[in-house]
Every structure is written in structure tokens, then in C-alpha cells.
Amino acid sequence: MFRKFPKYYLNTPSKSFGVTTKKIDWVLREILYRVYERNESFMSQKSLAQACELSMDTVNRLVSKLNQFRAIEKKPFGFRVLDSPKVLLYWAATRNLARNAVYNTYSPNSELEIEAQIPQGAIFTAYSGYRRRFGAPPTNYDEVYVYADPDEVKRRFPANEAERRNIFVLAPDPHIKKVSEEGAAPLAQIYVDLWQVGGAVANKFIVELDKKLELAGTEALKAIIRATRMGP
Q1: Cβ 29 vs Cβ 186: under 8 Å
Q2: What integer is the mean pLDDT of 161-180?
Q3: CA distances in angstroms from 215 to 34, 100, 149, 187, 209, listed in the order given
Q4: How is the chain split into domains, by residue range?
Q5: What number is the average pLDDT over the span 81-109?
Q6: Ramachandran assignment for 199, one of left (phi > 0), alpha (psi -120 to 50 degrees), beta (any other)
């Protein structure tokens, strides 16, 4: 598999990382983290702003957008997520993975050997994130995507002249560190990053992840029904 990113992002590590995830992505990540991993369907704009350390205006703009296509239902003290797959696909389609890339290189090692040498504190996503969360992957993969300090990764995997790249370092942000566990990104983050990577291998992972998210979504739906019966 041969992946291309804009030349600006190749072999250009920086302490400031140069690029960051859009802050609106933090809010989408937090919403879906609560739905899929904390089984919460109702949340307030204020709680999202506090969790993401963003302004209420930033959160309200996103909530209004989600309300436009009925993915959520506004309530007096917040909103309820009605269609989490729609929110997930909206994020997958609007995310820009290449914008988040800060260092790419190639290593002849296997993906497992590469993962073992990635510095501590890094957060794996896409294929490696799936394997960390669920164990055996649905198929073999040969690329590693990770949120990490590019300078630390470069010390272990120096830049080289190989045309092919199989290590992709993405700029981490303060929020992703809060909602990740055991070195793996949240489920929704893994999903949208796989969606952005694309291709036959990523699609096989997405199919399996869809099944797992559907189970989590079913629990969230039950919570919606219970909450509706009890009233806002």
C-alpha cells in the first residue's frame, strides 16, 4: 500500500507540530465518546465546552449543524443524540487526516515491531488502534498511524529516501489524551481515521468496527428510550 500526503508534511518534525486537529473535531470526538463508550445520549453544551476547553460559541455552532440534519434533538438544558451513526459519518466526511500529519517515514520492520518501538505516551489509531482495542485484526495491515511527538518518533525511525511510507505520525491534541485508554484512540476516532485512510484494507476494518459500534449504539438507544419515558 502506498500512501501520499502533501509534501509539506513529509519529514518535517517540529516541536509545535505545525498543524492541529480542528477544534470542532474535539467536540465531535467528545460527543461520540460519550455515546459509544460512556453510554450517554443526553449532554449539555456547557459540559462539552468544559470537557474540550472551548468556547460555548464553538460548541453551539456544531450543535446547530447537527440539529439541521436531525442527528440530535435540542432540549431545554442540552440535547439528545438521536442518530449517532449520522454524527459519526458527518465527522468522517469532514475530517482532514492529511492536515493532521506531521511526519511520515518508512521502516522495513513489521507493523508489530514498529508499534513496539513507538515511544511511550503515543496514541495509536486506525489499524493499530483497532488491534489495541480488540486484539486480532480482521486482516493484515502494513501501515502504522499514531498520535505522537514527531521528534521522538524520528529519533527511532529516521527520515530516509524510500518512496513508500508506512509510519504516519499525527499531531496529538490535549483532548484526545483525555479520552484515550491504554495507548489507543477512542472508537469513533479510530473509525473516522480509517475512513479517511480508505482503501480495501481500511474498509475491512471499518466493517468490523461498524458491528462493534452498532452494539454500543444499541445500548445508547436503550438509554434514550428509558430517558424519554422518564421525561427530560
Answers
A1: yes
A2: 95
A3: 14, 30, 34, 12, 10
A4: 7-21+97-211, 23-93+213-230
A5: 96
A6: left
